[in-house]
Specification:
alpha+beta, OB fold (Dihydrolipoamide Acetyltransferase, E2P), six-stranded mixed sheet, 3 helices, globular
């Protein structure tokens, strides 16, 4: 996924009110300026909101936006890049599916977004169909992973208690039990993460449901992305470890 324009850079001052962040930029005249930008991330952003970190942001030409700039990427203390814009995860995965980069999801001729399903009135991120070798509809739920533990290059999900994520797991389990193909796909938006685990210390119920989903036939996948100031692209599979708890 290419950005419309090359991202601009600044230094994080603070993130606040969940959806806002102040950054410091250098103007064309070499002067320092404080800029308030939109932060499209509802999570705790643990390790991804450290003051003094280098950040990259995009700029919208929509005159109706109160905050035209959007925080997209951060460089972590360890020198890795993390995409903090969780709204991009679905775009990245959709692009990867269409480009046949996710081997487990190759071959589907049809892709529908945000389809209503389930007893808990959810919307599935992607509903895939028309596969030449598998007549089952394929329900794909996407989650963005940026929580980095450091040791062993482990990434975890979620970074805050997620009742919505728990609901999605229950819905995926129900689809698998109904005979459909059911997939939870972690979009690993942190270049330092090489393995994904459930964050039991953050949301033990999510960890329990994730392991139950695996037992019930839900496919648990993870794919990582390369990122720069110009683009973010899904490029490699990441192993998922459901056996270990915490660190």
């Amino acid at each position: 996924m290419k950005f419309d324009q090359r991202l601009q850079s600044g230094t994080l001052i603070k993130r606040y009110k969940r959806f806002l962040a102040d950054i410091e930029i250098t103007t064309d005249k070499g002067l320092s300026k404080t800029l308030t930008i939109h932060c499209p991330n509802t999570g705790a952003m643990t390790g991804c909101n450290v003051p003094g970190s280098q950040v990259w942001f995009s700029t919208s030409e929509n005159p109706k936006r109160k905050y035209p700039h959007t925080w997209e990427i951060l460089q972590t203390a360890e020198g890795y890049k993390a995409c903090v814009n969780t709204l991009l995860a679905n775009k990245l995965i959709e692009e990867a599916i269409v480009d046949q980069k996710i081997s487990e999801l190759k071959g589907y001729a049809s892709l529908a977004r945000e389809v209503r399903y389930g007893e808990e009135k959810s919307r599935i991120d992607f509903l895939l169909s028309d596969h030449p070798a598998d007549a089952r509809p394929c329900y794909v739920e996407v989650k963005s992973v940026t929580l980095y533990t450091g040791g062993g290059h482990i990434g975890m999900f979620p970074d805050a208690v997620s009742t919505r994520g728990q609901k999605h797991l229950r819905e995926l389990i129900a689809m698998a039990e109904a005979g459909c193909r059911s997939v939870l796909l972690f979009c690993v938006n942190h270049t330092g993460i090489k393995k994904v685990r459930p964050a039991d210390h953050v949301d033990p119920e999510y960890g329990r449901l994730l392991r139950l989903a695996d037992e019930k036939g839900v496919e648990i996948l993870a794919y990582g992305a390369d990122m720069s100031e110009s683009e973010i692209t899904i490029t490699y599979a990441v192993p998922v470890d459901l056996m270990s708890k915490d660190l």
